[in-house]
Every structure is written in structure tokens, then in C-alpha cells.
Amino acid sequence: MTDATPPSENTAPAISSNHELSVQRNLALPTPAHDELLIRVIYSGINPADIKHKALGIVDTHLGYDFCGVVHRLPPFDSGFAVGDVVAGTTPTGYGGPKKYGTHQDYLACPVDMAFKIPPNLPVLDAACICVTTMTAADILVDLCGFEPDDLGSTSDRAGRSAILIWGASTGVGNACVQFARALGIKNILATASPARHALLQDLGATHVFDYNDSSAVARMREVARNGSFNITHAIDAVGTTGMFSNSATLTKECCVDHPSAVLVSTVVRPFDKGFKMPLATKNKRVDIRLLIIPSLKAVDIAKGYLPTIRQTIEPDHEAHNRMWSALLWAEDHYGERLSYHECKRLILASRPSVCLWKSIALQEEQGDSESKNLGRKITRRSRLAVTMGPYEKKPTGRDSCISKKESDIVEVYATPGRGIGHALGSLVSPVEVTAESAYAINQFFNSTAERMYPVHLGITIEAAKIMWLQVLFVNEASYHCHVALMQTCNEVYDSNDSVSPRALSHIARSLPRVQRILNSDEALSDASIAIVLSLISQEMIRKCNEEIEIHFQGLTRMVDLRGGLPKLEDNRALTLKICK
Ligand SMILES: NC(=O)c1ccc[n+]([C@@H]2O[C@H](COP(=O)([O-])OP(=O)(O)OC[C@H]3O[C@@H](n4cnc5c(N)ncnc54)[C@H](OP(=O)(O)O)[C@@H]3O)[C@@H](O)[C@H]2O)c1
After folding, report:
1. Which Pfam families is this protein grouped with (predicted)?
2. 204, 430, 565, 576: which sits with the fewest CB atoms below 10 Å from its CB?
3. Residue of the nearest CA to atom 3 in ligand 1?
């Protein structure tokens, strides 16, 4: 039996085995298995995963993870559903998921035990995007942190002494974690978010809120725990940023240094940090994550087939999946009473979602924007202005426009620089206007720091070092900002032993989007681009950010390989030496 709406053809946004995105039209309706419903989709929720497929190696499938819709055709047994029921759910899509499960298509197949009838207290729009985030939060708290699902909403004091930190609490997952934490009776719920979200999060259950952009947030959080005489026993990185100075996992971990046995969870794969558990309880299929370490998405196309990958296998866990599902049903029952997403995750597309979604993805692909977070945000909320990420994975669009319209915006007044850096500077065309602050940093570097970095016994004179640096400094804007950042960092390391320099970081913030652009251009493999990556590695080494070092190092290795190996670089001996170093 089918609903009254005449079946039409199916339309689906798809990713091919060659990582190409397209909208597939005039498709036949999916064929559900004997225990599946055929559903006509009304709304589908957008998740960051929607445009991470390429990097995660999820290919040859139809896109989308959660939905609400109308039951169009029933299985041949009493499933508890009727044709015309308005239902929501999620499907076993993603890795190896058959195309029939993609939720952004007009019709999909959904196993009967992965859909539920939408109760009157749950608006259909919210229902379309409740599953992924809520089940992930449940997986984190119940399966990975070990809290008792029976304690949800009960008066049990079992979780009372625990204290939980949720870094990125206004993400959909973070938001659900806060609310589950409160429902479990956890007394101290520490959360980071933009200040504009603090009141909302406190309303939902956060007991202490911090701005993730505040450089003292970690110290303040530790102080709150010390003053309150509690340990952070569980720390969740719910945002999953990587990169130069906003690596949410690193920050999350730093909050727990006073309690090293804290359970650490990250919502994204952390291949270089085994301390973190990752939620991904799948019901009955083994998931083999193949994470590409890529300089840019374009490079995937250039280097198809031989890009380095990191593998992580997650075995199916039926029990864990059942616990997630039960927690979801609990949330759905109490929606509006205890749980609500407010504006969070209302990233819904109206009917015929596939076309809208595709347009957003296509636009970002064209712009070389691989950062999934902006996809929904363009529609309903502010973008992740604060996210600054490593250039190989994600593009920090917002930060660039927010901080660095032009270099003079951040100029501070300095005493007149001492000795000049010589005639070479005067005769070079700079890609940006060199401000007093930068000139001071460059001068200081050549006048005192370089002398300590290149001691005479190494056989490199200051003049030779200067020529080496000047050759790369003014090649382009990215190189300029990146190398001024390195000079500034080195100055501060040698001057005050301080490796975290806000001035250097502001140059890095400006260089990252430019680096991304270069990596997406024909210049991707030039000497200058390789020099930029070397500079990034040096800076991360100074900051001791191992994960970033590894990512840049992998990027560097690929670049050298794609250039044909080290021998092909020998024309530029300084560069070759630096790579070998
Ligand atoms: N493992 C899994 O099964 C699984 C499932 C779902 C999601 N995920 C992953 O979990 C992450 C969150 O997904 P989501 O859908 O919940 O995210 P989302 O709703 O798209 O997150 C958007 C929010 O991120 C916050 N944010 C941006 N940059 C931040 C930073 N540097 N620090 C802290 N918060 C920041 C912003 O909060 P403000 O408004 O406060 O600025 C923004 O509102 C993603 O990386 C996603 O891929 C994993």
C-alpha cells in the first residue's frame, strides 16, 4: 500500500567514486528491503559530515544522514507504522551505505527500527535534525563516558560527583551533551561557546560558561574546578577543529591536566592522539574510516590513488546502538520539556532539498572551501568565524575577513626600529604594505635573533641567512605573513622564552586562507609553497603541536613526492637543505 501522493522520480545529491558531487535526477524510487519503509522526504537535516565525504573517503553514495518524511510504502508485516505517518529518523548511510539510504533524496528507504513517529511536542523541522546530534551525544555520555541511561531524568545521584566539560557546547552535538548531562544529574557542566550563546546554554544546563576565543579560557576553567574543589572527570571536544592555534582537542585536554585520568572524547577522528575516544556506534556494520591526509581537496584530484591515508576501523556494536536509540527516544519524549535545540541545528532545507544542498556544496567546492561547518551556517547562523584550521584540511574563511582586512588594522605604535635590514628590502617589491610592527619584527630577527639561530660555526653567515629569508619573505602575501610569523615567534623565543606570540598568531591567521588559495592553485607545488609549509612546521615545532606538525609534514612529503622527489629540488639547495633538516 502506498500514500496518496503519486510517486515521482527520485532526485538525489550524490558523490561518485571519483569524489565528484552531482545531483542525480530521474532516478527510480529506492527499493526497500523486507524490513524497511519507503519514505517520501519532507525535510532533511544538514550535518558537517555532508561535505566531509571526500576527505573521509565516503564515496559512491547518496548524501544525507537524518530526515523527517511521510511513510509511503510499508513492509509486508506489522511494523507499527501506517502509510501517511509522519516520521523522523536516520539511516545506515555513510561508509558503504547503499544509495537508497541517503536522506537528502526525495525518497529513501529506512529500516523500521531507525524511524519513529513524530510526537506532537516535537516540531517536524526539529525532528528532521534531531537524530544524528542526539544519538552522537548519547553515544558519548552513555557508551563512552559510562553514564547510566536509566539515570536520564531520574532523581538518582549517581552522576552527581562527576564534572563534565563540553568544548564547543553550541554545536548540535555539544548542545545535546549539555542537556543529557543535566538530565543525568551531573552537577558541574562546563561549556565553551561564543558569548552570545552563554545565556542559552545556562538555560539548558551549563553551570559554567567560557568563551572559546578567550585565550585564558583553559586557565579559568582549571581555576573554577580548583575553587569548586572538583575534578573535570569527562571532557568532550564536541567541535572537532584542527589547526594552528584553535585545536579544540588540545584545548580540551589542557583543561584536564589537573586530572589526567579524565575520559577524553572527540567527535572527530584524532589519528595522532590516541587519548581520545570517538563516538560512532554502528548497529550492524563495520566501519573502515580512511582519512586522507591532504594538502587540499584539489590535490586529491591531482594525486588520486596514492595519497597517504590513515585507517581506523570501528566494529559494530549492537548494544551501544540500542542505548543511543533509547536515549534518542527519551529526548524525543521530553522534547520541549527538557530538551530543545532552539536555533541550534535548525539547518533544514525545504522540500526538494537535494537541489538546494547541491547548490551550497557546489559553491563551496568552486571556492575551494572544504570546511563543512559553513554549509548550514550560510543559511541560518553565523559562520564559524572563530575557527582557524590547518590549511590542508579546512579553510578558515571567517577568521580572515574578521581579523585581517589589511595589515595596518593591527599596527601598534613602536619605537623607531633600530638598524635597518639593509638595502635588500628597499629594492624588493613587497606583496603587502610592511607596517612598523612587521618591520620591527623583521629587523629584530636579522639584528639579533638570526645571530643566535645561525651561529658562525654552522658555516652560514648572517648575510647568507638574510638572503635566504628575503628570497622567500616577499614572494607572495601568504609567504610574507607566514615568515613574519616565524620571525616574530623566534624573536620572542630568544628574547623572552615565550613560544605563544599573539602577534605571530595574528600573522598566521592571515596567512592560512592565503596558503589554502595557493594550495588550490597552480602554485601548489612551487618552491615558495614548500618554503611556506616548512615555515609552518617550524612554528608548530616551537609550539610543540605534534598533531599539526604531523599534518604539515605529511603535506610536505606529498608536495616533494609530487615534484618528483628531493633530487628534483636540488636547484634550490637552501630549500633542499631545509627539507632535509
Ligand atoms: N562521530 C560522530 O558520529 C559525529 C556525529 C556528528 C557530528 N560529528 C562531528 O562533530 C562536530 C560537531 O558537529 P555538529 O553538527 O554538532 O556541529 P555544528 O552544529 O555545525 O556546530 C556549529 C557550532 O560550532 C561552534 N564552533 C565553531 N568553532 C568553534 C570553536 N573553535 N570552538 C568551539 N565551538 C566552535 C559554533 O558555536 P558558537 O555559535 O558558540 O560560536 C557553531 O555554532 C563536527 O566536527 C562533526 O563532524 C561527529
Report:
1. ADH_N (PF08240), ADH_zinc_N (PF00107), Fungal_trans_2 (PF11951)
2. 565
3. 280
Topology (CATH) of 132-282? Rossmann fold (3.40.50)
Distance 416 CA to ligand 1 centre (A): 45
Q: Is 69 in the pocket of ligand 1 (CB under 6 A)?
A: no
User: Fold for domain 10-129+346-366?
Assistant: Quinone Oxidoreductase; Chain A, domain 1 (3.90.180)
The domain ranges of the chain are 10-129+346-366, 132-282, 397-580
Which mutation among 167, 173, 242, 277 tests ligand 1's pocket best, with the greatest number of atoms within 8 A of CB?
173
CA distance 490 to 136: 42
Cβ 136 under 6 angstroms from ligand 1: yes
Q: What does DSSP assign to residue 104?
A: T
Tell me the mean pLDDT per 10 residues along the chain, length 581. Answer: 63 85 90 96 86 77 92 96 96 83 94 95 86 94 93 83 94 92 94 94 94 92 95 95 69 91 91 80 72 46 47 79 92 77 38 33 38 28 22 27 23 24 40 72 75 58 67 79 85 69 78 82 84 86 81 86 81 74 70
Rounded CA separation 563/561 (Å): 5
Q: What tens digit of pLDDT does each residue of 233-258 get?
A: 999 999 988 654 567 888 899 999 99
Structure confidence at residue 255 (pLDDT): 93
Give the distance (Å) from ligand 1 centre to CA of residue 173: 7
Q: For cell 566531509, what's the residue?
A: 52
* Residue 373 beta carbon below 6 angstroms from any ligand 1 atom: yes
Predicted local distance difference test score (pLDDT) of residue 228: 93
**Strand ranges of the sheet holding 208-210, from the earlier edge strand across to the other edge:** 208-210, 188-192, 163-167, 234-237, 263-266
Residue 247 to residue 258: CA distance in whole angstroms: 19
Give alpha helix (H) positions in 266-413: 297-302, 318-333, 353-366, 374-380, 397-403
Q: Which of 176, 180, 39, 165 has the alpha carbon at shortest distance from 100? A: 39
Cell numbers standing for residue 80: 507499527
Q: Quote the pLDDT of residue 318.
A: 87
Nearest CA to ligand 1 atom 41: 194
Max CA distance (Å), the chain: 86
321 lines ligand 1 (CB under 6 A): no
Number of CB atoms found within 10 A of residue 491's CB: 24
- How many angstroms separate the CA atoms of 194 and 341, rounded? 16
Which sign does the torsion angle of CA 378, 43, 194, 222 carry?
A: negative
Task: Report d(CA 128, CA 148) in Å as an integer.
Answer: 27
